[in-house]
Amino acid sequence: MTWLRLSPLEWSDLRRALGIYATATFLRGNYMILMLACWMIAALSTLRDLHGLLRHETLTEALSHTNVFYVILVVMVVQSVLQLHTNNQISGSQAPSIPGLALAEARAASIVASVIILGLAGLMRLLPVPFHDALFFILFNAIPSTVQWYAPPREQSGKKRVAILLFGVALMVGQFALVLVSDATYWMLTRPAVLTIPASIILFMALIGSILSLPNRLYGSKPLAPAAHETGQSLPAETTHSSRARPPTQRSLTPYQLRQMLLAPVTPVTFRTDILVSLFLIPVTLSVFAMIEAFLAHRSFSSAWVKSVGTGCVMLVIGDKWLLDRQHWPLLLVTGRFGSRLEFVRAVFRAKLSRMLIITPIRVLTLVVPYAVLKPLLPATAIFEALDLIVLVGGMTLCSALPFVIMRAPPKSVVFAFNLAPLLLIQMCSPFLLSVRYAAYLAMTALVLGLLSYCFAPYRLSRSDWPYENE
Question: I need a labelling partner for 279 at 20 to 30 A (CA). Which of 49, 130, 258, 367 fits?
């Protein structure tokens, strides 16, 4: 009923916020649209295949012959697109001074998210699947987005923030674990209405409530330290000048950390930490999910671990956005430690290559060695698969720079798509899915394209713009 009590000004703000979704501004400023379009095509292809299989197979058999992961991914990416748009709308320095801006954007996003979720559920109804089951399936897989939307209020206590954070992490881990279970999709799509309708109402209300907490992001940030005018004290001129002028590279960093600072704006990890994370990231993560699936799907731990090897392949390249996060480049360039713009970009590429040559073999071995033991594989086959994965990951990672070789000034959506493409290609082209010969051909192709990018992309990047904020 609160929607009916909006003032005329609030209705006007809401119509304006909704209208932006139908303009070129929404498409041009959202670099995830292209990736969403690619995943949507894959999801529609999956639904079409399922629709054809259901003519002569049961739902259980049809689901075993297709991969509904693309449908799940679309559910998540759609919410990420909306989050990126709303964050762009309220990210300006003048945004807090505009009354009703954040609330109007939150209300508009909640309406668009609701329409999209209902549309996806209606699309799945064509399988045919009961609408209440399809809606529950969509909303359940939107749990990570619900957690990401939520912004705690400023006055909330620290203990409550931690409790909510842990609860959200538990929800995301549980959702992701169930996605890995082979029978989970069938279970969600065949529940009685007496269970799915109340669950869908709860999940829908949680999602809308999380989206409507968006204004807390705009007005809930606390300063890290009191300002001079609040304390009544003035800072020494020398201190003020040095704190503003001292670049982040002036700290006592190791050479390895300094190279890693080129790749991301956050404080880089040490060499030892990087090695330890690489050693335990894949085996520990896959072991946890294998135990969950072995418990829920009543299968052996070894078979569950082998089945989850595709997820392990994704972890070889996950979180790799070294050409997307470039807002720290200008600040590092002015330190003078890296020479000219061209020399600076080449230093970035060298840092990426050096880290990749150290980290990638470690992560590949932590994936292939347990897989070879549990499968089991012949030693020669395991060696070929490990070499193939190392070359494939290295080539695809360097291929992230291909847009700068092909295009003069590639849009951020294209760069974003090339940076996320390895997440899909590593599963489609891995030696675990293809024969060793075809996987080797694809790996060599990726390596050649990656080397071309490594040689020619730095020059084009050095001549492009490096803004401090979003591109």
Answer: 258
